[in-house]
Amino acid sequence: xxxxxxxxxxxxxxxxxxxxxxxxxxxxxxxxxxxxxxxxxxxxxxxxxxxxxxxxxxxxxxxxxxxxxxxxxxxxxxxxxxxxxxxxxxxxxxxxxxxxxxxxxxxxxxxxxxxxxxxxxxxxxxxxxxxxxxxxxxxxxxxxxxxxxxxxxxxxxxxxxxxxxxxxxxxxxxxxxxxxxxxxxxxxxxxxxxxxxxxxxxxxxxxxxxxxxxxxxxxxxxxxxxxxxxxxxxxxxxxxxxxxxxxxxxxxxxxxxxxxxxxxxxxxxxxxxxxxxxxxxxxxxxxxxxxxxxxxxxxxxxxxxxxxxxxxxxxxxxxxxxxxxxxxxxxxxxxxxxxxxxxxxxxxxxxxxxxxxxxxxxxxxxxxxxxxxxxxxxxxxxxxxxxxx
Length: 389
What we know:
2 domains, 5-stranded parallel sheet, globular, alpha/beta, Spore protein YkvP/CgeB glycosyl transferase-like domain-containing protein, 15 strands, Rossmann fold, YkvP/CgeB_Glyco_trans-like, 6-stranded parallel sheet
């Protein structure tokens, strides 16, 4: 999937200086992931106003209350997110009721969930755009994969960690007639404090060189939840334990900082170790992308993680051999990959520089602003640089 260039989206933003497009953002404000996503919108409010978009934000108190609020505020575009624990059928009914009203705004469903998969595709007939942080690539995988529960993390847990996935699922088929409504927006690398150093780089050459003095060969400190019976959280924890255990063959030859022994360190020490590391192994979380990936890139360690070639996302720090090093889902090639790059410090430097440059470029090119413009043009709320009447 290719993203439109800035010039293709707007011919002239100079004609759109007054806010004429009312946008309303509604979601579960008590959810930290939703809060981080809205942080990225708050950070760009002034930029959005340049092409006529004014955003207001509200908590999703309940479905009936949300419908009443939308009808009262009368936005032209509604950005809405549901808590992942909501019943999908209830969310569909709510959007269908809103859609049936005579003065319904354009509806953008903002999927903030970690996974490339989602159980919320049934909302597609009732929204204009389904915004997702990361999607399967190609999108046909939504309907052709044979992963347990339709989810790649469950595939790793079941096939390589001996976890009984049972009937756990976080997926739904993608109706082909609505596939063009699914669009990538931006992942958590562009959210909250993790984005600050890339947005406002202040690293001078002396500090950058100091960060090159690496005393730790491999770093892997990750949260691991206790394994409990048939708890779905086992899917998450088993993969992380798999990654920690995979480092054991390297322990005699290299200096490794990990919590394979369940040790913990203060946050300040965590970052000191990460900045001092040549390589950092980053397991998936509930989804393929984690905030740790971007912290690793920021600290100039070589990012190694299970292959994400089935995923499309942005900021894209997942270009094999250029910005990160993929390993097999069974981690059979992890030892080989670590040894290869630890013997080639120039390659580590090249790839870590590429990764940070890719992260930084996302902000330098004003990607969030452009993505919002693309959205409004597609919704026919913005055309030729001016809000549509």
